[in-house]
Every structure is written in C-alpha cells, then in structure tokens.
Specification:
CATH architecture of the largest domain: 3 Solenoid
CATH topology of the largest domain: Pectate Lyase C-like
Strand order of the largest sheet: 1-4-7-10-13-16-19-22-25-26
C-alpha cells in the first residue's frame, strides 16, 4: 500500500508475503514493503496521518515505511517478518532526504511489535552486509516519540542514523544480537536523544563479545563522542546466561572502547539509575536453561496464561498462578523453581518407553486438585496427549536416553503445585526368541532374546516360569503352545512355538540305534532349530553336561 496523502488513516489491514518475488518491484514504488507513507515535499501542516492496528506477515523489504512527514502516528502495528529478500531496512523504517523546515516533526511510534527481521546478505547494497533492524530511524529525522514498542528475534533491535531529538522510553529490546545501535557517518550529528526506562534483554549464549553489547555507539568522524551528546538513564539490563562486564561499545572516530555499567556511571555519568538485577540462571536452580526466561506478548486480544512454576519479575517480585496480558503488552519473568512440590502428586506408569513403539500412558490420582497440566522435558522429546489426570506420551526424538514427566495440580487458575519428576528411560525394544531341546522326559528351554530386563514363559499347560533357562516336564504327551514374553521397562515382545511332546522314538525324535559292546544309544535327539547347545550323558544315574559340540544331542545309558 502506497500513500502520498496529506492526512488520513491506514488502519486494521492484514498484509502477507509482500514483495517476496524477485524482479516484481520497481524502484521507488515501495512494492516490496507492506505500507509506504511518504510526501513529495515537507510541510509542517501535513497530517495527522495514522497507521494503526495493521498486521504484516513476511515482507521482502520494510514492513512499514514513512518519510518526509510531519504529524504521523504509527501505533499498535504488528510486523512479523521483514527484510527477507533485501537488506538495509527494517520492520518499521523512517527516512527523509531533507531536514525539517520548522522544528521537530512531531512523529510518534508507539506500542508496536516487530520481530523476525532477519536480513539477507544476498540482497544487500554492499558485499557481505546483513543490516536488518526491527526499527530503523534513518537520516534527518528530528522529534520522534518512540515509546512502549517491542523489538525481538531480529538481527538488530534498533538503528539510529543521523537523527536528532528522539525520545526512547519504555521500550523492550529482547533476543537480538545487537540491541541498540547508533552510528554517525558522513552526515548530521546524532544529538539530543533521551534513552530511559527501557528494558534490554540479551538472551545470547554464545561467547563472542560483540554479540553481548547492549549499546554500540559509533561516530566514524573524530570530534564527537555520542555518549557526550545523548542521555541514558533508568534502563534495565539483563543477560541471564552470559553476564558480561562490558555492556557498552563506543567509537569516537579514533579509539574503540568497551566498558561496563560501573564505568558508564562513574566516568561518563550516564545511566546513574541503571538497574542490573542479579537475575542469573544456574544449574543449582533445578530449572532447565531453556525455561528460565519466560517471555510472551499479546497482539489483538488479551492472553490468559497459567504459570507452571514460581517466577520473579524484572524487579524481583514473586509471580505465580494466572496472569493476563493485555493487547500490545508483554510479560517478562524469570523462573526460580518448577513449583511447590507436592509429594502426593504421584505419577504412576512404566519407567521406560521403547524407541520403536514410542508410546506409554501415565496417570495421577489426587482429588485435591480440579485439573492437571502435564509437561515433558526436554520439550522436543515427546508429544503429550492429555486427558486431565491421564496422559499419553508419544516419543518423537529417539536421541534422548532419558526424559522426565511432571504434572501440575491446579486449583482455579493457580497451578503452582507440581509433582516430583517422574523419570522415564528411553530404551531399545526387546526382541523375544527361544529354542528348546528334549532331555529325557524333560524339555529344556533356551532363551535367545535381546534387550530385555525380565522374561515370562507360558509353557502351554498352565505353568509359567520367569527363569532364563527353565526345564519343564509335561504330565502327558501332546501338543503344547509355548510363548516367551521379553520385557524391557514397560516394553514387551512375544515369541511363540509349538512343541510335540511324546515318548522316545516319536514326536520329532530320531529312531533308536544300538551300539556294540555295553554301550547302547538310547535316543538321538536334536534342537528344533540351530546348532547343538547341550549334550547330556547318563552314567550310573549321574548326569554331566557341556555347552559346546558339533553333533546332535545324544543321551547314552552305560
């Protein structure tokens, strides 16, 4: 949408996949941006122009562009994906080719949400660039109120370039490798900006120093130092995983210097009321690293959330139970524990789950709670299909050797009570197999199963055995269906075979044979399948055995 009007509204529209095909846009048309509001010349009586409540998903270039303008309001828009084909742009971008004629422009950027502005080096104006900003305040902007916006999950949070008198207040910058970037290069000085009461959250867990700066303040021309001509105060700084001492990086045209909050306060007299809460993740908390920071926001409708566990907010105040996020607001919390452990919230079920079968059901019985919420860790290990106090765990990642299951008991909307962790081993499926041999009037069973922890034999006549190598004597000749169940921590597999049990010389037995002298071969018998595994000799009522041999089983009576 392209507009060159003196005043008007662009409100409550939905844009998706704008400018996502190369070669379909002409220069200067804004065809690769969802909304472009511009003016052919500067007039202080232009506006007011309102850009409000628009939802923009995936743009090849900018989400919203406005320039050469006075009295414009960009309010409560949601941009999800920008600079996906081109570079050197932003989710919300503003620029002017002329300085304002009569004082500040009186422009407002308030309550917007921008995320996933990733950039594309292949579409950059210079080789190797990847310059994509959630918010981009480009050349010759004066007098912008920039308040209560959110920037997240982007290459940069915000970039200020050759602009003056910008009021940054109450904004959130989270999970961007570079959160706040000012650069002056061959243009007007960046002066008179107030940066106060903003929240900067660096979730980076990499060790590169340049990815842990909150501010990067560059003046490429000697003679001006940006911290001397702009004001910072009362901002929050969080780096819960890699707390670096150097939050600020500056360049005065000659020297590049990095330093921490203490030097920022004492030497530069900036951010004297800065808040750096001692909110840090550690293994001792017993909270998974990827669950420590809880962040969420609401877009067009309020969002109700039942918190699973105990949290603190950015000021260290305890938060539990249910919370409501109003549209274009957010919640930022830090998890301190999985919750108040209730030992009577006992999960019942198998302690293992098979890789191939990949499914088991678990239950909790406790009448003290109205409802239950189930949770698995790691989250990508399995999908949960829950029916209040019962859950089916469907394994979807076979690379884990163990997963854990918790259930939260809820009273009204308070779900702060949690079960002890129920650990589940991820095991190889058992493979049941067996062989057998006739020994006199007995049948010797030989287990050949794999990946098992227990066995159960059903011998076909009502008798059972849990032995690895049972020997059984049937009461009468006949046909018996034998089964072996191999189990491995909740997983089972069954092998079956039919045995013809009868008198010597019948039922699978070889014919009698007679040897010379005093040795008479009573019977030749062999295993049903496979090599010889047992040879039994009878001598004067004494039996000796060996487990190796290359011939059929022979029983000799001396």
């Amino acid at each position: 949408m392209y507009s060159d009007s003196y005043s008007g509204r662009i409100k409550n529209n939905y844009f998706e996949n704008i400018g996502m095909e190369l070669g379909r846009a002409g220069n200067g048309t804004g065809a690769m941006s969802a909304i472009t509001q511009t003016a052919s010349d500067l007039h202080d009586n232009r506006g007011p122009q309102l850009i409000e409540g628009n939802h923009i998903v995936n743009c090849g270039y900018n989400g919203i562009t406005f320039g050469h303008y006075y009295n414009i309001y960009v309010v409560n828009n949601f941009v999800d994906g920008a600079c996906l084909l081109l570079d050197d742009g932003g989710g919300i971008y503003t620029w002017s080719n002329k300085k304002a004629k009569d004082g500040p422009r009186n422009n407002h950027v308030i309550g917007n949400i921008v995320r996933n502005v990733t950039g594309n080096a292949a579409g950059a104006p210079g080789e190797g660039h990847k310059e994509a900003y959630a918010y981009y305040i480009d050349d010759r902007n004066e007098g912008i109120t920039f308040r209560n916006n959110m920037a997240m999950d982007s290459e940069y949070g915000i970039f200020v370039h050759h602009s003056q008198d910008i009021d940054f207040y109450g904004n959130l910058f989270i999970n961007c490798p570079q959160l706040f970037f000012m650069r002056q290069y061959m243009g007007e000085a960046i002066t008179g900006c107030d940066i106060y009461s903003n929240v900067f959250v660096n979730l980076n867990t990499e060790t590169q120093q340049h990815k842990n700066y909150v501010y990067c303040l560059d003046n490429d021309e000697p003679g001006m130092y940006l911290p001397d001509v702009n004001t910072f105060d009362s901002n929050y700084y969080f780096n819960p995983f890699l707390l670096q001492s150097n939050f600020i990086n500056t360049f005065d045209g000659t020297n590049r210097i990095s330093f921490g909050i203490d030097q920022w306060n004492s030497v530069h007299e900036q951010d004297l009321n800065a808040r750096v809460p001692n909110i840090l993740w550690s293994e001792a908390l017993g909270v998974p690293k990827d669950e420590y920071v809880f962040f969420d926001f609401a877009h067009s409708q309020p969002k109700n959330i039942s918190l699973l566990g105990n949290y603190v907010d950015k000021d260290g105040h305890a938060v539990t139970g249910s919370i409501t996020i109003e549209p274009f607001e957010y919640v930022l919390l830090f998890k301190q524990s999985e919750g108040n452990v209730d030992s009577e919230l006992n999960i019942e079920g198998p302690t293992g789950i098979c890789k191939e079968k990949g499914q088991n059901t678990f239950i909790v019985n406790n009448s003290n709670y109205e409802s239950f919420i189930w949770k698995v860790y790691p989250e990508d290990a399995a999908n949960l299909s829950a029916n209040n106090n019962m859950v089916t765990v469907n394994l979807n990642n076979k690379n884990y050797s163990n997963i854990s299951l918790n259930v939260y008991g809820c009273k009204s909307e308070d779900c702060s009570y949690v079960s002890p962790s129920f650990n589940i081993a991820v095991v190889d499926d058992p493979v049941a197999n067996f062989d057998y041999a006739f020994v006199e009037a007995n049948v010797a069973f030989y287990n050949q199963s794999q990946n098992f922890t227990s066995l159960l034999w059903q011998l076909g006549d009502g008798n059972t055995s849990k032995n690895t190598f049972p020997v059984h004597k049937y009461a009468a000749p006949g046909t018996y269906e034998v089964s072996l169940t191999a189990a491995n921590i909740g997983c089972t597999n069954i092998a079956r075979d039919t045995i013809e049990y009868g008198s010597p010389g019948s039922g699978g037995l070889y014919p009698d044979a007679v040897a010379t002298a005093k040795i008479v071969v009573d019977d030749y018998r062999k295993f049903a399948t496979g090599p010889v595994r047992l040879i039994t000799w009878l001598a004067q009522q004494t039996t000796t055995s060996t487990t190796s041999g290359t011939c059929s089983l022979k029983t000799l009576q001396l």
